[in-house]
């Protein structure tokens, strides 16, 4: 009997999680880039009960005495939230210039101030009052938020107005509204707030006029972000699959793809479910309608808790321990040096040295104080496999079968393969957490161990030894007639 017959079969949900984690690991490793997070209002609702779009408009209706009907009436008659937002903006302006004047700061009453400034001021005040300024206030989700922060994304893109993401990613630079278009280059460690922010209430996209202006300039925004979407893993969080923001972004991505019809390999949507029955296998793909009557397929993840998903995206953390603020400043300054300083200013530069540096990876890295490029490349070449990769080569899924072989080596031969760097394994240090990688020799070794064959093991500090693990125990024979 094969040793796999003795292994407990994982539940459908457990197997689903292992398969998703393995796919994420493959995608992150294949792109060799940090993920981009695209975050919607669902995440703010989850962590601090921020209002949805309907709830926001409902609260605004109750706040202004000149809005004399319940929000449901306006939703029945106008339907479009942008039109409702525009109608409410007019009522707030009338209120502000009448009995409600004391509720607004004096600077809003200049003749150059837009008429929508009064409702946007109230939105900003409302969201500031509910947004936590300290992560201790959301302790119920501590593990999940810690895992989110540990992803160390290349950048975060959001349609949210609130400032929770600035609390969760304090070293990331907010880029608000039209600033994205004016920014000369896209860097690392930035939060792109494409629908505005409460820190600049005028930037908030609320009315039809606001949205029309956003759409007019969207092509420039999309052109800037498209490189992000094509090169990095992209994770949508806090959106439903039918959200118009997702449909618009996916439409842009689809147009840039050389082929169509298959699953977009680097794009995931994470959706929360209150419960998932044990016998059910959640969705792994979503078909989403985009513009021009077309549809695209992206990878789907469904979960009752996001911690394991965030950990999967944060497994490889090359930015861990490195300040995104420092990296952003480094890239920005380098860009300005090449774009402006050298062409337009009298600078002293050793161009012969620079020419030699850009032709050699090590020398170029040394310009920035980085000296381990070749070492990391060699590690990657000699130890190309994660534990999940090893398990797949052994005919299993997830990582359990490979770990069983490692445990057998330790229990029956006294060799802890993961305890040191050796010909089979190395631990690459990224910040506090090592990433364990394995060589092709490790695959061959574990294959023999699991088959019960004698193996020669090169144990550090000892002579090479031939050791035979016991075969896995066979189950007792069944009684006749059973």
Short summary:
The protein has 482 residues and is of the alpha/beta class. The chain has helices at 12-31, 41-48, 53-63, 71-78, 81-96, 117-130, 142-150, 164-168, 179-182, 208-231, 244-256, 307-313, 324-344, 351-358, 361-366, 373-382, 387-393, 400-413, 440-450; strands spanning 36-39, 155-158, 173-176, 190-193, 234-237, 263-272, 285-289, 295-303, 425-430, 433-438, 455-457, 465-467.
Largest sheet: 8 strands, mixed
**Distance, first to last CA:** 18 Å
Please tally the β strands and state the result: 12
Task: Give the low-pLDDT segments.
Answer: 371-375
Can you describe this structure?
It is a single chain. With 482 residues, the protein is α/β, with parallel strands linked by helices. The chain is built from 19 helices and 12 strands. It has an 8-stranded mixed β-sheet with strand order 3-4-2-1-5-6-8-7, with helices on both faces. A two-stranded antiparallel ribbon has the order 9-10. Helix 7 (142-150) packs parallel to helix 12 (307-313).
Sum up the structure in keywords.
single chain; eight-stranded mixed β-sheet; two-stranded antiparallel sheet; 482 residues; alpha/beta
What's the arrangement of secondary structure elements?
Blueprint: H1 12-31, E1 36-39, H2 41-48, H3 53-63, H4 71-78, H5 81-96, H6 117-130, H7 142-150, E2 155-158, H8 164-168, E3 173-176, H9 179-182, E4 190-193, H10 208-231, E5 234-237, H11 244-256, E6 263-272, E7 285-289, E8 295-303, H12 307-313, H13 324-344, H14 351-358, H15 361-366, H16 373-382, H17 387-393, H18 400-413, E9 425-430, E10 433-438, H19 440-450, E11 455-457, E12 465-467
Helix pairs in contact: 1-12, 3-5, 5-6, 7-12, 10-11, 17-18, 18-19
């Amino acid at each position: 009997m094969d040793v796999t017959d003795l292994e407990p079969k994982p539940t459908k949900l457990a197997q689903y999680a292992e398969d998703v984690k393995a796919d994420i690991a493959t995608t992150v490793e294949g792109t060799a880039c940090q993920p981009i997070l695209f975050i919607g209002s669902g995440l703010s609702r989850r962590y601090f009960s921020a209002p949805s779009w309907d709830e926001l408009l409902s609260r605004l209706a109750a706040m202004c005495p000149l809005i004399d009907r319940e929000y449901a009436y306006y939703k029945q008659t106008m339907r479009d939230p942008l039109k409702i937002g525009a109608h409410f903006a007019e009522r707030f302006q009338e209120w502000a210039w009448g009995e409600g004047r004391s509720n607004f700061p004096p600077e809003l009453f200049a003749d150059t101030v837009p008429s929508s400034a009064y409702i946007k001021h109230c939105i900003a005040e409302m969201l500031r009052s509910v947004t936590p300024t300290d992560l201790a206030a959301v302790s119920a989700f501590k593990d999940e938020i810690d895992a989110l922060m540990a992803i160390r994304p290349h950048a975060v893109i959001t349609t949210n107005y609130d400032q929770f993401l600035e609390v969760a990613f304090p070293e990331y630079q907010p880029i608000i509204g039209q600033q994205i278009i004016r920014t000369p280059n896209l860097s690392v460690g930035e939060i792109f707030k494409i629908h505005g922010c409460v820190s600049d209430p005028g930037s908030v996209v609320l009315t039809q006029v606001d949205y029309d202006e956003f759409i007019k300039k969207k092509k420039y925004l999309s052109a800037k972000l498209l490189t992000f979407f094509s090169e990095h893993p992209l994770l949508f969080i806090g959106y439903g699959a039918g959200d118009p923001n997702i449909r618009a972004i996916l439409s842009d991505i689809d147009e840039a793809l050389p082929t169509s019809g298959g699953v977009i390999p680097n794009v995931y949507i994470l959706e929360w479910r209150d419960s998932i029955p044990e016998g059910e296998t959640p969705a792994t793909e979503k078909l989403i309608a985009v513009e021009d009557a077309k549809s695209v397929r992206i990878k789907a993840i469904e979960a009752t808790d996001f911690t394991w998903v965030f950990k999967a995206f944060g497994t490889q953390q090359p930015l861990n321990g490195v300040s995104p603020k420092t990296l952003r400043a480094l890239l920005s300054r380098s860009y300005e040096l090449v774009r402006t300083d050298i062409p337009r200013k009298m600078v002293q530069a050793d161009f012969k040295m620079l020419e030699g540096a850009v032709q050699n990876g090590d020398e170029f890295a040394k310009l920035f104080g980085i000296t381990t490029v070749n070492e990391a490349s060699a590690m990657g070449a000699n130890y190309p496999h994660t534990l999940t990769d090893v398990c797949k080569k052994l005919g299993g899924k997830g990582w359990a079968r490979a770990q069983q072989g490692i445990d057998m080596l330790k229990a029956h031969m006294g060799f802890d393969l993961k305890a040191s760097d050796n010909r089979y394994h190395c631990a690459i240090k990224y910040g506090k957490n090592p990433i364990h990688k394995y060589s092709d020799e490790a695959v061959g070794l574990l294959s023999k161990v699991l088959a019960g064959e004698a193996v020669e093991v090169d144990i550090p500090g000892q002579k090479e030894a031939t050791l035979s693990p016991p075969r896995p125990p066979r189950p007792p024979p069944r009684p006749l007639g059973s």
